[in-house]
């Protein structure tokens, strides 16, 4: 147990040290143009980014074309284990490269700007949801070792710090290394994620939970994670992502 605790503490210290180096090398860098900006996202990029605006699906938050409709095509046909969710930007060409760099090319510093924007856009909504705990969507152990970090965890920790809400990065775990969701259709994604998550923490005792991830496409990952958290005792589960696909 002492060896395990020592290893865990060492890894934590290395992560903190690495994050400090990243902050030094990339101080408040705009994720979209690469220029140093004290605001994180520079004014020029902010002006052209595709923020999610009304009309959007009242359940998943996807942009929809007709104001008279409450739900997107998917949410009108399928029920979800989560209560509702929101995203900052539409997942289109101007947004994709920044998230890709954040997710796969060690641009962890971008997470700070993304999280601040998530709070800027939905801080009041998070308070309205009465969130008691924030949980990032976990990676499998092998994928985390390969990547070196979990981008959702970076977002969750920064949001938790800004909102003064506890963050749990240990209890929701990924049981298996699933095939990347982006190469599969909706049915394949659901099958791929069967039994993908497990809960290893204490019972949540009726609290409201906020799940954090980088991208929402079909919602399969969020939904399976929400089911797992609900089974652990959560009363309501909401989600927040950096970007989201288009609804209909």
From TrEMBL:
Domain Double zinc ribbon: start-end pairs: 24-75
Q: Name one Pfam family in it.
A: DZR_2
Q: Which domain of life is it from?
A: Bacteria
Write down the SUPFAM superfamilies for this protein, in alphabetical order.
PRTase-like (SSF53271)
Q: Which CDD domains match?
A: PRTases_typeI
PANTHER family xrefs:
DNA UTILIZATION PROTEIN YHGH
Family statement? Belongs to the ComF/GntX family.
Its recorded name reads ComF family protein
| Protein's organism | Dorea ammoniilytica
